[in-house]
Amino acid sequence: MLIDVITIFPEYLAPAQLSLLGKAAAAGIVRLQVHDLRNWTSDRHRTVDDTPYGGGAGMVMKPEPWGLAIDDLLGAPTRRPQAPEPSPPGQVPGAGAGGSELLEAAGGTGGQGDEVTLVIPTASGNPFDQALAERLAGATRLVFACGRYEGIDARVAEHYRGRDGVAVEELSIGDYVLAGGEVAALVMIEAITRLLPGVVGNAASLAEESHVRPGLLEYPVYTKPAVWRGLEVPPVLLSGHHGKVAAWRDDQARQRTAQMRPDLAG
Ligand code: JB8
């Protein structure tokens, strides 16, 4: 899977090089490329924002740098044939359309046979959940467009939606407001890439966990010592009786779901 992230804060994606994701990259399962949006500006101040039409607080991200950046990453075949955006004079793209050769490897994409899924994190997007993570884990190419300020000019999503070979997903990771899309992209990238074959060693741990069984939270887990600060591990877990352990865990999962997530509890 090839993942591109476009942002004005490339350093925000540094944690993606660590741990699980870093191992996936080292193993060649995932290639992560982070790009600075300002590389697709051409004015001396490398401007990416402007005041909102219609008034109101804050600034809005200008569409032109986004269009140039996304066009560059997607490559010429996904451009609208009748309306090519000419590069302004003196433009030096931050990165070429490299990576298209990785698409030769057959496989799923956004789920509908698209070559690329353009993910735009936004607080007003569709909820990103485990089912969506699983669908996006079938993609071969993801491009994350991380906005800041009050968000990206709405015409960017509109322009790429329905474009040949492109699926556009405007996604929210939860009902709270972040300062930009970077952390949301990091969350989604971790949730997606850990599902890729070879990233998480134990396939059973993927099948059993919270949210994979939809609507039921995970049961509590314990390890040694059997008594810690006066707190005992539930004796059933030491009984060696697999049937009783399974029944206890199922009961705990149901209790926990009712307590913590009454919205999920049936
Ligand atoms: C500007 O809360 B969020 C979120 C907030 C944002 C942007 C993207 C995502 C861009 N503010 O998920």
Identify the strand order in the major beta sheet. Answer: 2-1-6-5-7
Strand content: 15-25%
Q: Indicate the percent of residues in helices.
A: 25-40%
The residue ranges in which pLDDT falls below 50 over 5 or more consecutive positions are 77-107
Structural class: alpha/beta
Bound molecules: 1~{H}-indol-6-ylboronic acid
Number of strand segments: 9
The number of domains: 2
Largest sheet: 5 strands, parallel
The CATH superfamily of the largest domain is known as SPOUT methyltransferase, trefoil knot domain
Name of the CATH architecture of the largest domain: 3-Layer(aba) Sandwich
Radius of gyration: 22 Å
Q: What is the overall number of helices?
A: 7
Which CATH top level class of the largest domain fits?
A: Alpha Beta
CATH topology (fold) name of the largest domain: Alpha/beta knot
First and last CA, distance: 36 Å
Taken from the alpha-carbon principal axes, the silhouette is elongated
Secondary-structure element string = EHEEEHEHEHEHHEEH
- Mean pLDDT comes to 86
